[in-house]
Amino acid sequence: QVQLVESGGGLVQAGDSLRLSCADSRRTFSNYAMGWFRQAPGKERELVAAISNGFSTYYADSVKGRFTISRDNAKNTVYLQMNSLKPEDTAVYYCAGRSGPVIAVPSIGYPYWGQGTQVTVSS
After folding, report:
1. How far, CA to CA in Å, does 109 sit from each of 13, 17, 73, 102, 113?
2. Each residue of 88-109: pLDDT tens digit?
3. ∠ at Cα 19 (45, 51), nearest 5°?
4. Closest by Cα among 65, 60, 75 to 105
5. What are φ and ψ of residue 92, in 5° steps?
6. Distance between CA 35 and CA 6 in Å, rounded?
């Protein structure tokens, strides 16, 4: 059983920061690429940030400079530091994992998913 569990979401004001965490139960966590996706009501699920097993990173243009993805293989955890949050960042944020070197792929390319954590940014 593969289990990814997100945490750290909540209700914040514009300009605030949040740190999302995703715990992965897989013993081979360090061999997988991990990504953060988000989906707002009525919108497509989009890749926000991703990090490879070699620690290379990808960021969507909408969050570049504000969000930082990182991972701690000793803790089987991937993080998303979200700074300068905007109301348009409001969405359910999902942690996802995949095997392979390519990280900038759509959601269909990530077979392992968490249940999501809600991030709401008020204006």
Report:
1. 33, 29, 22, 9, 11
2. 999 999 999 999 889 999 999 9
3. 60
4. 60
5. -85, 125
6. 12
Structure tokens at 17: 């920061």
Q: What are the backbone dihedrals phi and psi of residue 27, each rounded to the nearest 5 degrees, phi first?
A: -70, -25
pLDDT 10s digits, 53-87: 999 999 999 999 999 999 999 999 999 999 999 99
Q: What are the structure tokens assigned to 112, written together? A: 């392992």
What is the reported pLDDT for 98? 94
The answer to whether 33 and 98 are in contact (CB under 8 A) is yes
The 3-state secondary structure of 79-105, one letter per residue: EEEECCCCHHHCEEEEEEEECCCCCCC
